[in-house]
Every structure is written in C-alpha cells, then in structure tokens.
Write a structure and sequence with these properties.
The chain is mainly α. Helices cover 66% and strands 0% of the residues.
C-alpha cells in the first residue's frame, strides 16, 4: 500500500464550480500529486501537471492555490483509507483494533510523500488555512471513529474524537522525523497514543470547550515541530 493514492476523489473543491471546471481541476490535482516529490506542495507542481495534460491551471481556478493541492490529497487519502479498510474491519473484534488499522492505513497514504509533508503542514498551519486544517482533522477523526464503530455516550463523543485527532496528528508529525526500518518507531508511537486514549479516556472536555481545546491541541503540536 506504499503508493500515492489517486483513485478516489472524496469531494469536489467547490460545489459552486461548473461540472466541467471541477472535473478539470480534479484531473490536474490528481496528476499534480505525482509532481509533489519534485516540486513540493506548490503552484509549480500544479502548473507542471496542467502542462502534462495540456490544460491551464488558471482556467480551473488553481493558479494561485497551493493549499488546494494539500486539501485534495487529504480528501483523497481519507477516501482511500476507508475503501482499503472496508473489507478488513469485520475481522477485528474491538473498536480499538479497528482504529489502529484505520490509522495505519491512513498514515501509509502519507508515506510516499513524507519528505515533503512538513511543507504541507506548514501550509495548513498558516493562520488563513488553520480553519481548513482543523476541519479536515475533525472530519478524519469522525470518519475513522464511525468506521471503527466507536461508541461514546453524551459528551464523551467529542472527547474521543478530539483525542483521536490529536493522537493521529502527533503520529503523522512523528513520521516526518522517523528513519527507522519500516517506520517501526512510528507504529510504536501510534500504538502508545491509542493506548492512552483507551485507558485514560483522554481529553475529557465538554461540547462547549471542544473547539477551543481542539485548536489548542493542534497549535501545540504544530509549535513543537517548529511550525508557528
């Protein structure tokens, strides 16, 4: 599964775009992911992809939006994760084991681009993009919890997802620095974070505090990696 995921687009970039423009943008962004190792998460990657396809990034609204490439990857990677895990989840008896599988599959989507991933994190951490980053991370946590059939009463629903989001993001950033064979240290780090959630019911915050606690977790993790 060590590949750049391209086959499933989870949602269009903008529901307000005409269908033809949206299709063009998606085609360019799909191909642009193959340019990220050489060009990074930049307009140069988008322009190179458009050039290969004989298309114009300007006409598709992508000319000055490198964040669109990062968001496209996040959407695609989540869809691929859910699709790849679908036929394996029923074999695992507990939500904890299912979450572990889902997180591992999702992290493998990032691995082919891991050398460039700090650049994507830096883009997401910019003040104007932070609401998008928190939205994507919240969606990731909710989708993984739903797929794993995690059940939590009342306010624990928010705490579980906040804890999972923080654990996943910390692991993904750890992955960026991990040079161990087979990323073994990353898998150990992930297991430790998930065990903490299971044993301590981490981040037990109420619904009214969820948004601020969630944003604070993200800021602390970003800051710890030098992205401010």
């Amino acid at each position: 599964m060590n590949r750049i995921p391209l086959q499933i687009l989870r949602r269009t970039l903008s529901t307000a775009q005409p269908a033809a423009t949206t299709t063009t943008a998606a085609s360019i962004l799909d191909h642009a992911l193959t340019k990220v190792p050489a060009h990074g998460w930049t307009t140069a990657a988008v322009a190179a992809a458009a050039n290969d396809l004989g298309l114009s990034p300007a006409t598709s609204g992508l000319a000055a939006q490198p964040i669109a490439l990062v968001e496209h990857f996040l959407n695609t990677a989540l869809s691929c994760t859910l699709a790849d895990a679908d036929d394996q989840l029923h074999e695992l008896p507990t939500p904890h084991e299912r979450l572990r599988l889902l997180c591992r599959i999702r992290l493998r989507q990032t691995m082919p681009l891991v050398d460039r991933w700090p650049e994507a994190v830096a883009l997401l951490a910019q003040p104007q993009n932070l609401p998008r980053a928190t939205g994507h991370l919240a969606e990731l946590a909710s989708e993984l919890c739903y797929a794993a059939d995690v059940r939590a009463p009342n306010l624990d629903w928010y705490a579980q997802r906040s804890a999972l989001a923080a654990a996943y993001l910390a692991t993904e950033l750890y992955l960026c620095e991990d040079r161990s064979p087979g990323h073994e240290l990353t898998w150990r780090f992930l297991d430790s974070r998930l065990d903490e959630i299971k044993s301590a019911r981490a981040l037990c915050v109420g619904a009214s505090n969820y948004a601020s606690q969630f944003s604070r977790n993200m800021y602390n993790i970003f800051a710890s990696q030098g992205f401010k």
